[in-house]
Amino acid sequence: MTTLPPLTASAVAPAAALDSAPRFRRVFRLEPGHGAVVSAMLRASALGVYEAQLDGAPVDEDVLAPGWSSYEWRLRYQTYDLTDRLRGASAEDGGPHVLAAVVGNGWHLGQLGWQEKRRLYGEHRALLAQLDIVYADGHVQTVGTDESWQARGSEILTDDLYDGQTIDARRRETDWASPRRADDDADWAAVAAVGVDAELVEPIGPPVRRQQQIAPQRIWTSPSGRTLVDFGQNLVGWIRLTVRGAAGKTVTVRHAEVLEHDELGTRPLRHADAADRFILSGDEDTFEPTFTFHGFRYAEVSDFPGELTAAALTAVVVHSEMPRTGTFRSSHELVNQLHENVVWGLRGNFLDVPTDCPQRDERLGWTGDIAVFAPTAAHLFDVRGFLADWLRDVAAEQRAADGFVPYVVPDVLKHQDMPEEFTPVESAAIWSDAAVWVPWALWEAYGDREVLDAQYESMTAHLRRVELLLSPTGLWDTGFQFGDWLDPDASPHRPADAKADPSVVATACVIRTARMVAETAEILDRPDDADAFHALAERVQAAFLEHYVDGDGRITSDATTVYTLAIVFDLLDEPRRAAAGERLAELVAAAEYKVSTGFAGTPYITEALSRTGHVETAYRLLLETGCPSWLYPVTMGATTVWERWDSMLPDGSINPGEMTSFNHYALGSVAAWLHRVVGGLAPAEPGYARVRIAPQPPQGAMAKELTWAETAQETPQGLVTVHWERVGEELVLDVRLPEGVEADVDVSATVPSAAPQVIVGDGAERRIRFSREEVGAPMR
To answer: What Gene3D superfamilies does the record point to (predicted)?
Structure first.
């Protein structure tokens, strides 16, 4: 096998300024005397985003490549196997061939953040490409980006991820990269060499691609006379538009997630224009703006010639390519819709980087969101590569900041003019803890030591930095904290104001993080580190108990979130744990079973209740439909998870705060509880090497609200399914396990007389019946 030459960091940019997104091309011929082509591999990247072609046809289905990494240190490249395009050809067969690409601004040069700042990483769009052609005799011909390339403008007049794209169909040339045009040098100009300082790295994660297409559900005229389109689903991607009209006429498509007062609700977009403009050629034109993306359910189409019909528009859903691995269904349709909303929230925000939101002038890799959501994500999709790649950027940012984990990765906040109290210069609980919590979630879900090994330096650097931030009391009660961000009782204009003491939240997180790092050290056979980190966790836990917990189990600030974290993070001894569970249930009841937690507490509160014997309280909290609650947005027609419980007020108006999104996945972290406790399926050992099957159906008055549930998980061992149903006085459990996989089955929380049992999978479904009087035997 021939070894390919190393990839050179040589890129090209237009030598002179262009009025549009640049096209690049290189005409080449196969080299004579070496026989037929046996292999052709293209490695490509860009300062910007690119779409590459060979002989006028796309090299792959990827869009928005190379994606967004921490460009100062890591620039990913893609590898495309073009062997089938050239296999068997030789110089004697003639030619020529054309290697080409179009480059957009993307994350490298486009707007990032909420202050309309652009060009954070550089000044020029540039292409890096290297096609290595291997011949029968082993000779390798390399076609790389150098000054022999040419550049010219394109039909893409403007492109920005936030603002949208302008395409002039009058400038479109379908065969500009065809070999038929190889000798046509008209309008082609010189290129200049551009250096690439970042390390060129092969991606660990999947490419971004078109995933599905959605047709309009309704087209109508608004009260102001605007033409509106509803696709029925809040999604991320763009609209493909087909239109025929007078040459030079412009059709404008604006996007938004919601309607307000029966008009397009654009205020939450802030500075993001989120509009595509299509200039017609006079013939039938099809436009697809692939150098931008929008978060939307609704569109407003202006100046469309004639009547706009559903046949003219298609919503194209775009996200990183990840296999679906976990599903959940139940007898409760609102809960099913909640779960579906979480799935769509992940789809929209897992577009190369795990973002907070996909629509407004932000779309950043907020670490706090993914820190709490990673376990849920791992239930729903295979996110190993996606998050492992992002974690490499976490580590790169840390190394440049002495262990500090930024609040967003890639870190663009350092380029924003931040308020003094919010200047991101020091670690913050949950947000910076993503350096530890995310790889640990991947370990639990997939049982792969590689991610722990790759991230160990990052994990320990974060913990050691936090250790230095502890006060002499042993508590993390210094510096800025997000705390229980977006507490529903806080003013919409002051999202950090929360009932839970931020130092209690932060100190609880230190203990959890230290334990995870200690266990990681044990897994990686680093006993000295393990001992040191276990000792740190014990010291901070002792301080937590001394300063924040009284003898009766009351915790400082007496809020639902502090009890939730103390229970789920296992910070309390008995009987204070039981007392904390009782107090948590009391506070939930006092809030009339409406949500009273923010970012810190919400992912874990149902788990805290079910762990301490308050499963009925957990179900009442889950099934509440008043605002704030998980199901309130569902009753309001939501198809994704909202950033705020009341992003849309009951009167149909948008929350008055400046920070409102209708597609934020963090509060959807409850879906992990749906899988693990309602559905009853969880890993008993990392990677589901052993399975725990322990559904806790609702009891008492809640029993009639949810009578069956089922979940399925494609694990590294194979498919596991669990279905339970109440049949009269019996609980009937149907289980399927991969061959040889053992499962601990425990329904004693619902059927006290049922002793835990172990079953071994044989690939077939088996049924187990439990009654109040006795435990049924496994049946085929």
So the answer is: 1.50.10.10, Galactose-binding domain-like, Maltose phosphorylase, domain 3
CA pair distance 697, 724, nearest whole angstrom: 8
CA distance 53 to 42: 10
Q: Locate all alpha helices (DSSP H) within 472-526, ordered by sequence.
A: 502-523
The conformation of residue 678, written as its DSSP 8-state character, comes to I
CATH class as words, domain 10-154+171-205: mainly beta
Residue 247: how many other CB atoms lie within 10 Å:
12
Q: Residue 64 carries which DSSP code? A: S
Dist CA 644 CA 147 (whole Å): 52
Residue 492's pLDDT is: 82
**Cβ–Cβ < 8 Å for 23, 14:** no
**Two structure tokens written together for 436:** 């530890």
pLDDT above 80 (res 768): yes
The CATH number given to 326-678 is 1.50.10.10
In the residue annotation, 643 being an active-site residue is answered as yes
User: What is the four-CA torsion angle of 466, 467, 472, 475, rounded to 10 degrees?
Assistant: 60
Residue ranges matching CATH 2.60.420.10 in the chain: 681-770
Number of alpha carbons in the 13 Å side-chain half-sphere of residue 618:
26
452-463 tens-digit pLDDT: 999 999 999 999
Dihedral sign for Cα 187, 188, 193, 196, please.
Answer: positive
Per the residue annotation, which of 362, 397, 444, 607 is the catalytic one? 362
- Distances in Å between the Cα of 462 and the Cα atoms of 46, 331, 400, 427, 527 are 31, 43, 13, 8, 19
Residues listed for the chain? 780
Catalytic residue among 155, 397, 643, 710: 643
Q: Judge whether 257 counts as a catalytic residue.
A: no
Q: 736 burial class (0-12, 13-18, 19+ CB within 10 angstroms)?
A: middle
Predicted structure pTM score: 0.96
